[in-house]
Amino acid sequence: MQAVILAAGEGRRVRPLTRSRPKAMIPVANRPIIEYVIEALVKNGIRDIIVVVGYRKEQVTRYLNQMDIPVDVVVQNKQLGTGHALLSAESKIHDNFLVLPGDNYIDPSSIARIKDIPNAMLVKEHQNPSNFGVVMLHEDHVTNIVEKPAHAPSFMVSTGIYSLTREVFGHIRENNLTDAISSLIKSGVKIQGIPADDWQDAIFAWDLLKMNRRLLPTISPSRDGSASRQTIIQGAVRIGKGTTIGPNTVITGPVVIGNDCVIGPNCCILPNTSIGSRVKIEPFTIIGESIIMDDTVIGSHSRIIDTVTGERCILADHTSTWTTSGILDFEGLAVRSEFGAILGDSITCGPFSIMKNSMIGNSVTIEGRASLSSRYIPDNSTVI
């Protein structure tokens, strides 16, 4: 069986993290999201995989070429929607096939439920259905899909994962794949709605923290780096090659730490934390429930909780992020959120700064003693 992974889009609502990488390449538990999708397919014996790339396609293609399993890459030259992306791969599809988004987590057992049923879709109840295509079911068959309704008629949503026949290509007239599925239903084709066991999407950047909490318990503990005898390591913890953990540092899993990091001494790494490669965490710093990407430096006496940092961030000493609920003005939308901070790439933050429920764009400079609460700071800004 063939599978088509759609990984051509940027993921605008996950900005600023997608300015320099597509959403499918955002690391969660130190692995790009698309890798979990490919892994779920391979565990079901599906190895004929096509990946449609577009936005920052070189980055995705380079990563796929490094994987052990060969993947066929197709380029969507203009990002015109999921339907258009699937059409880009039409010439390579020979029979029944699966369609999956490359920026959602899906577990192998859910793939097993759908892979042998032509014309089916995985569905899942979600507490915020208006962010998705809301699905109406009758006797386990899809009767209607309402895309991102203001007032959702149901909590059941489409995961964007389908088992289809080539007949669908005759129904792709708009750029959205959902419209093609609706057209199939109107033509009399029955689409079975199959509940997914475990599926996660990150609608906004702070949703990555929930995905990180879900995936970290799946890691295999290992210690390829070196830790002081005075270091305390508890639970499932993976430490990469070349990483050194200083004395009197406490790490409580699940935690994953990349290669060539320097942590401590006297640090505390709390559960549900992913730390990338070449990260430096200076003494007397606490980090928890966070994703810290590659080449970031966090100064001493800092407290980083419920936070996602992009790559190459420099946070000076006594930087704090505090989990607070609030409403963010995000691209003209008032969005309710609850997290510490979302930091884009290449941010420089001065000492004694505090961020609460704030989103900081790429290449932003924050001078010392700043206090930001429920703020969105655009790219290339300076906060005085």
The parts where pLDDT drops under 50 for at least 5 residues are none
Distance from first to last alpha carbon: 57 Å
| Number of individual domains | 2
Q: Would you identify the CATH H-level superfamily of the largest domain?
A: Spore Coat Polysaccharide Biosynthesis Protein SpsA, Chain A
- CATH hierarchy: architecture of the largest domain: Alpha-Beta Complex
CATH class of the largest domain: Alpha Beta
Q: Order of strands across the widest beta sheet?
A: 14-17-20-23-26-29-34-37-40
Number of helices: 6
* Main sheet attributes: strand count, strand direction, barrel closure: 9 strands, parallel
Based on CA atoms alone, the radius of gyration comes out at 22 Å
The amount of helix comes to 10-25%
Q: Indicate the overall shape.
A: globular
Q: CATH fold name of the largest domain, please?
A: Spore Coat Polysaccharide Biosynthesis Protein SpsA, Chain A
Structural class: mainly beta
Beta strand %: 35-45%
Number of strands: 41
Mean pLDDT: 92
